[in-house]
Amino acid sequence: MNKNWLFVWMVLGVLAGCGDNTAENVTTTNPVDTTGGAGVGLQGDRANPVLFENPYAQVPAQCYIETSRGTQNACQYCHTNAAYQQGLGNNNPQAGLEARIGNLQLEYAFAPYDTVMPLATINRWENTLKPENLRAVVAAMGIDTAAWDMRTYLRTDNWKAAYAQRPGDPKQWDAGVQSAFRLFPGLDPADLPAKADGFVRSQQAKNGFFSDAQGWITGWRAINFMPYGIFTPMTGSVSGIYIRLPETFMQREDGSFDLATYAQNLDLLEHAIQGRLLPNDSKTYLGKATSVAVEHGLYPLGTEFAHPLHYVDVRADGTDASISPFPGTRSQRVKEVRYMYKARDWQPSQFRPGEKSEGTGIYGNDAQGWVDNGAGWLLAGYIEDKNGALRPQTREEMAQCIGCHSGITRTEFPTFTSGTGNTVDSTWAMPRKFAGELGWQEMNYLLYKADRSTPETVTPGKAGQGDPLNRELGKGELRYFLETVVGASLYGDMPQAVEKVLGQHIRAANGYSADWPALDTTSADSFQQAQALRQTLMREFTAKGGHLETDGTIKGGLLYPPERDALAAAARYRQVVVSQRYTKGKDVFPETPVTFRHFRDPSEPLTRVDGTPYQTGEIVTERPIEQDNPASLTYRAGNSATQIDDSKPYPAGNYNPDYLPLLQFPLQYEPAPAPAGVIGRRPDWRDIPLTSLPLSLSGMLRLPNGQGFAVLEHDGGQFLVQSGRELHTHKGVKLLEVSEHYALLQHAASGHLEKLELGMHSPAATAVAAPLAVSADELAFVDLKAFRDNAAVDPYRLFDAVQPEAVVVSGKLSGYRLSPGADPALFVKAGLKTGDVLLAVNGVRLESEEQAVKLLEQYAGTIQLSLTLQRGKEEINVPVNFQEFELAANAVSG
Known about the structure:
signal; 13-stranded antiparallel sheet; SH3 type barrels; PDZ; alpha+beta
């Protein structure tokens, strides 16, 4: 096998001289932070993980599951090479790219810290592996769990009481005094939820740096992202994520506060973390932070993250504060509040995989609940005590955090590190943030909308968002997850509620190759046959768009558990709370997940450490190790294969060493399935009738997979609508698809399809659009510089200025006829006239819709454009210089 002790150190964390528990200071200087020295005196010591109840707490329980002969590859979501290959804030490739690390998709290569240390191949996550043991412990405590009112428990706040114990100024990352809640994030839950733009505002001046009409700006901003199969409603835990940069990022160069400057800096950071920096993006942050470089895949010093981890309350969608003020099934009560602070510079490119030097123990402070992750960040965590109040976490509990949030480094004073191959600068959420405004709002788990009239045994609501496409794969994130994991989480488990959805839809009578089978555990062969068939059927299901509703949104039954199931999951977790057995696992199932049981071919069974083979159906509690040669570098390291076949890459097989957890930009979704009653392919567009609605199609911008924008005329005016969205003029009707010559509408109630064609009006669409009229006063106040800056963040803001209509000659695109957008003054200020035909941008002719989209993205935030227009019979060039507008605006304001 391909591993050695350097692999051991990098993946599991290094331990040498662990008996050294001397205290030392953590350096937390920040050249752009104005905290005035807060953090000086923050002290910890080193803890020897060998002395922990679980010496390898950085290896999560998910890493110990079986893969059902490779049909369930949950490994790829952490153990990948892609982020490293793209130089995106990661130096820990874990899928065979670096020989010293090995391939963690192919091997259970758990290795001890030393040849005399405890084995790492033993699964010590007892609560997850044997939930009956946890039940017995709680029963022995004399606790009747049946008497718990979990609904009331979830709706009882425990965050505010913890926040009240944080001393000092909430605007500073460090309270600056010795306290159990010293590093509790300075995010006041009384200020939540965030406003519509994602910024957290307070009505208390002490919580904010400056104010606007809506309140005091606290610096925190909510992040809405595509979740992994870790914290989702189906797993029983859901996240809120908030980011804050140091106050210099909120200031203009003269030191005055400015929300627009701060928003631009956050957008620049988003580009950097998501690998979307363009040549015309600023090389430094703006305003007073101009001395700070924008670095590919890295956060600036002083970045803060606050991460409340909530229970799941399926009635919570943010519309009823008596249930919960938070959307996305996020309960009032939190399980944990987590915090990250970027304290030191970390340059992953300076350390080759395998170069990590020996470390000592885990550096941190149990009384204050924080640890050093060894890769530039301080991590802090607060979790429920036995009574449900938040308390600081111990280093053994925090070791689980380092396992997922770390990286490789080599320092003068090395410390314990771990990490995965998928993170960007130790983070998970920001890389998967939805681009633009959709991603700057409270985490809402795909725009969840609760249906409070439903009984507690059925799907409690629906998603308002589709399945976003992965940047590299071109497939929906959920689709790909279902196809490769064939489960609802990284455990590969399939809750009964999801089984029910799949069983109802996947039937031979519905055009599938077979009915969805139950897992037959009577023999290894029957189990593996059933699992292989499930993978085949799952891929048929997603290929048909079966995981989507007819409007393109994700089926609620795949995301949101019935209330009864959610409350039962909360009660199981509460057993961990009252027993305080967090070090034995936080994920508790009704019974041992089948993925922890042995169903390998009896002729090639998995064995225990002592060589005893497992029998069919037995729980796998430990894995074999190398014992042949005590002098070997891999002596006593795990040596069993995952059974994922690297000779069969996805999609033919299930192996993918290069999974990149980033979304396409601009954001695109899996296309909606054929409407109900439509068998096979959708009817030819020519056979779909023209709409009877009083609408006309005056322009379109087409994107791949039927996505795009349409300019519709109604009742004398025009409006822009995006595919997948409901028409504000006609409830229950949405724009389903945008194609080269037509736009497709769908009636939600019936699934009935109608079309709109360019140049063709429906019988009822007789009104004429109002003429363009813009006064000189309006033009004087137009800020094209601000418009350009906004368009750099969200290219589709260009539609505020202009509505394009494709001009097709002899079947070929020749340009776009331009008319004013939502803000006609912008159109006029740019020197455009109604009826202009845009032929080229900066000399590049527009010859296809795809090329137009690329130019839109490329030049959205540029300083100067040269537009080639056909105006009447003349072809003219119109320069648009945003820099001149900026200078002119400055001159006027000065």
